[in-house]
Amino acid sequence: MSKKESFDKMTTDILRSVRLTNLSFKIWMGFITVSFLICIYAYTIQLREGLGVAGIRDYVSWGMYISNFVFFVATSLIGMLISAVLGLSGIKWAAPLARIAEIIALAFAMVAGLVIVSDMGRPERLAYVFIYGRIQSPILWDVTVVTTYVAISALLLYLPLIPDLKICYDRLENIPKLQRNIYKWLSLDWSGSPEQIKIVRRSVRILLILIIPVAMGIHTVTSWLFAATTRTGWDSTIFGPYFVSGAFVSGCAAVIIAMFVYRKTYHLDKYITEFHFDKMGRLLVLVSLVYLYFNLNEYLVPGYKMKKFDHFHLMELFSGRFALLFWGTQLLGLVIPLILLLFKKIRRPLPMLVIAIFVLAGAWLKRLLIVVPTMENPYLPIQNVPLNFKFYTPTLIETAITLASIFLVLIIITVLSKVVPIIPIQEIELDEHESESV
Amino acid sequence: MVLLVVMLCFQSGIAQTVVVPADKKAKASPLLFNDAAVKDGENIYNKNCVSCHGNPTKANYQKSMSPIPGDPAEEKFQKNSDGELFYKIGVGNAVMPMFKNILSEEERWKLVGYIRSFNKSYKQPPLEVVVVNLLSKTVKLAISYNEKSHQIAITAKGKIKNDTVPLKGSEIVLYAKRYFGRLQIETVKQTNQQGTVLFAFPKDLPGDKVGNIELIAKINDELFGEVSVSKTLKIGIPTDKPSLTEKRAIWNVNAKAPIWILLTYTIGVLVVLSFLIYIIFSIIKIKKVSKKNN
Question: Domain B137-234 falls in which CATH fold?
Fold first, then answer.
């Protein structure tokens, strides 16, 4: 096969997902859309009745919503890890996964902001955050960095996409006219001249460098929402790196799940190979080890000292009300996956899918374990309140609203990966040219 | 079994009932429970009591409390005499707060009136003949300070027609006004034969910039009712702490945010923003190059 032919074949393979809409896609899309709408109905109830319909009360005012927010911000960090950290250090195997990671990053980061709004009893007052926000408040910083991260992620998805959009326009002749025109418009009539390639390369490079501090920023600031208080369980100096390392764990798991699904449904076995799974497995081991190390510090050091107020909080986690959740999350969501992934036999698509699901679920529950027990255990005793103010129990409506955000993420990911090639076409081609010319 | 007994003992340990002295029990309200009084009572109730006792007749009191506060419309409340209710509101019990330093006698009687308004079979006993309010205006309280002994002397005199008489054996409470609420000085004391009572005043109480402290003396006399007088004396330690919101600080308003936060935030945002603007221009440039090429 000549160079030209193989490029043609690859383009056709990768564009298949955009060109063809099969039944299972329609069923999946229908399912998530309907589920999303049902869950949105739950939100209208909350809007009408107030936050009382959720399980959050005066003391535990951050329940599932904020845990979910932290989880979303965390997962979105993977875009930075794969595109920027691996990309800039010249790790070639990660290149085909960059777009998947960027799509995941963008979807989670976009919805993270909305999740915050669902925790507001009066969402129409959102603008007050900007009008009356105090610059000293980590909440204002958080709003700033999350918005910035969404913008950078969008640009980082878009810029390398420009040549591919042109290919879409050229190759996909029998798609709806409007869609084709949008491709044309978005591709900026890419002509592929050396000048343009230079501009894109430089811009992408700037973004890749820029996204590292901003991504570290969003999750560090999110951790400061907790760590900037003096409450037991949150009053920690390592919360920033602890959160960031945890973020990579959940992000890697999300990418592995997405890789598996795209590979199966879009028949991309040739482009997302077992080799990539093996590499992602190793990456997950690495980030899990770092996260485990931070977990050790975060629980062992206070657990050794057992200061008066920490004592109660930690015992609730280690052997009290949250013990099952705590040990379950730590073991099934972190330690056991980490050990299993050390074996080469496990680092294959199907076992890794199962492991990644466990890791992702564990990551979600871990955020709940960071948020809720501390809120249930304030320094000043909880007095004169009904029992359901003391212990947090999520309600059905709250769960539905949380699910709404997850469905929205799935919708964004599904739609994005339907309209753009999920494996960078042009980038690979350029790389091949380069390696040739060397 | 043993456990049960122990638990029962423990239970009753918390929920000791208030013992109301016989004379207080028999005390009747000096004011008429008319509509205005009941209305006032309702307002006071909604501010101070509703959080625990709920709305009378609705039985929506705090059921998780021990002992349970109960609904004022219930039999448990209504079987008290007026004097008992008044006394119990004043002294509190277990979790029930003590209200005698928070609410005046008049306010507490109005509460009793409000509680009674839920009892159809209640008839207020005829008022005692003493016309309290008229007389009370003529009570005179003199507050003076003895520097040597650090004592506050309060002398109470009442005027009946043209005679001024010292009020003997009246209860007097002395407070010093603080930022939030009042600080009671010593305990409630009774006036002597001359109508005077002495309070030992603490030597180390902070005052304002020049040491001024506002004192409030309250007398409670059978005949003259409740009267309070306030007087500002220079008897505290001069204290001039700069207000916590004067300087730039983390907790201050935006305009007084610490410089380092302002700088870090602004510079950070500007740097990132300038890069983003540069990228936008690059995108526009790509478009221009395409136009030129085609």
Answer: Immunoglobulin-like (2.60.40)
